[in-house]
Write a structure and sequence with these properties.
By secondary structure, this protein is an alpha/beta fold. The chain has six helices and 14 strands. The protein has one domain: Class I glutamine amidotransferase (GATase) domain (Rossmann fold). 27% of the residues lie in helices and 32% in strands. An eight-stranded mixed sheet has the order 2-1-3-4-14-13-12-9. The protein starts with a strand and ends with a helix.
C-alpha cells in the first residue's frame, strides 16, 4: 500500500488521483497507526511550515514517520513535504522540522536581497530540471531527461547541509535544489502530479520501488 499522509495541509486528492491514473491506488491516511501497514509513504503539502509541523505533532504522526524513515521504506516529500524533511525552516519563525535530512528551508527573498535580484515570489509556473551526477543515479528520476519542465508553486526552498544529496537544481534568479535524495528519502519541491509526463514518470518510478 502507498499511504498519503493527511495532516490537514496537503494536496491530497490530486496526488491520489495521479497514483490512481497510474494503476496504483493510494490510500489517504489520517491515523499514524495506518502507516505501519504502508509499503511506501507520501508526505504532500500546501501551506506554511510551522502549522504543518504543529498538525503532524498534534495528530501523532512524528513517531510513525520517523519509524518509516528508519525502516528503509521509500518516503516521498512533495513541495512543503520536502521542506518538512529537513532540520529547520524560517517560515513563521525558526521552526524545527522532522530532521530526516540535514539542512534548512529559506525564503527566496532572503537569497534575492543578498544578490539584488528582483523576481516575483512565490515562484509559480513551469521551470526546468538540471540533473546532478547524483540525480542521474536516482531511481525516482529513471527515464527523466535533462531539462524536463515541471510545475512549481513555492516561496521557500531547501538548503541541504551537503550538496551530495541534491538530485536536481532549477534556476530562478539563483540555482536552488529542486530535488533531493538520500537512501530511502526522496524530496521534490515541484508538484509531480501537475507536471505531466515527467512528473507521472517519477510517480511511476516510486510505485515500482
Amino acid at each position: 500500500m502507498i499511504a498519503i499522509v493527511d495532516y490537514g495541509m496537503g494536496n491530497l486528492k490530486s496526488v491520489a488521483k495521479a497514483f490512481e491514473h497510474l494503476g496504483a491506488p493510494a490510500r489517504i491516511v489520517t491515523k499514524p497507526k495506518e502507516l505501519a501497514r504502508a509499503e511506501k509513504v507520501v508526505v504532500p503539502g500546501v501551506g506554511a511550515f510551522k502549522p504543518a509541523m504543529q498538525n503532524l505533532k498534534k495528530d501523532g504522526f512524528l513517531p510513525a514517520l520517523d519509524a518509516c524513515a528508519k525502516t528503509g521504506r521509500p518516503l516521498l516529500g512533495v513541495c512543503l513535504g520536502v521542506q518538512l524533511f529537513f532540520d529547520y525552516s524560517y517560515e513563521g519563525g525558526k521552526t524545527r522540522g522532522l530532521g530526516f535530512l540535514k539542512g534548512e528551508a529559506v525564503h527566496f527573498k532572503t537569497a534575492f536581497q543578498k544578490r539584488r535580484i528582483a523576481l516575483k515570489v512565490p515562484h509559480i509556473g513551469w521551470n526546468q530540471l538540471e540533473l546532478t551526477a547524483h540525480g542521474r543515479q536516482c531511481p525516482l528520476l529513471k527515464g527523466v531527461r535533462e531539462g524536463e519542465f515541471v510545475y512549481f508553486v513555492h516561496s521557500y526552498f531547501v538548503l541541504p547541509a551537503s550538496r551530495a544529496i541534491i538530485a536536481s537544481r532549477t534556476d530562478y534568479g539563483i540555482s536552488f535544489a529542486s530535488m533531493v535524495w538520500q537512501d530511502n528519502i526522496f524530496g521534490i519541491q515541484f508538484h509531480p502530479e501537475k507536471s505531466h509526463t515527467a512528473g507521472l514518470r517519477m510517480l511511476e518510478n516510486f510505485i515500482r520501488m
